[in-house]
Amino acid sequence: QKILVLNGPNLNLLGTREPGVYGTKSLADIEADLRARFDGRAAIDFRQTNREGQLVDWIQEAGLSDVPVALNAGAYTHTSIAIRDAIAGAKAIVVEVHLSNIHAREDFRHRSFIAGVCRGVVAGFGPLSYALAVEALLVD
Ligand code: DQA
């Protein structure tokens, strides 16, 4: 089973970016842990971009090829109608992922534009959030 894991803006800086909030693992560490955990169970295609339109393109691609998506859209979660529309329009199956518990943080992080078109949301478990999202997509 192929699974697409998409990461949005600033997640390339994980490890050094606000480690008190996001932990000390790099995005490459998170990718390696996921690959090890799902070895033999899922073919993980792991990507990161700082560009909103690139996320839209990848979500459209996932919808067309029927590949489920674990998506950490970073700050675009709280701003992007374009990403919401891509998920809804492409009929992509998406689980929203966050390392941090966005509901325990600033008010502006409490609203997600994409949650309403996602299958579910996993937030607050650090790198484990990604693994829980992939588990959910495999059951699905
Ligand atoms: C994040 C939470 C967002 O609010 C923030 O903008 C991020 C990371 C998380 O994984 O906790 O960039 O998506």
TrEMBL record:
Entry's EC annotation: 4.2.1.10
Pfam families tied to this protein: DHquinase_II (PF01220)
Keyword Lyase listed: yes
Gene Ontology biological-process entries: amino acid biosynthetic process; aromatic amino acid family biosynthetic process; chorismate biosynthetic process; quinate catabolic process
Domain of life (superkingdom): Bacteria
Active-site feature positions: 22 (proton acceptor), 98 (proton donor)
Enzyme class (EC, first level): lyase
Chain positions recorded as substrate binding sites: 72, 78, 85, 99-100, 109
Spans through the membrane: none
Molecular-function GO term, any one: 3-dehydroquinate dehydratase activity
Keywords: Amino-acid biosynthesis, Aromatic amino acid biosynthesis, Lyase
Family statement: Belongs to the type-II 3-dehydroquinase family.
UniProt function note: Catalyzes a trans-dehydration via an enolate intermediate.
HAMAP family named among the record's database cross-references: AroQ
Subunit structure: Homododecamer.
Protein name in the entry: 3-dehydroquinate dehydratase
Organism: Plantimonas leprariae
Gene symbol of the encoding locus: aroQ
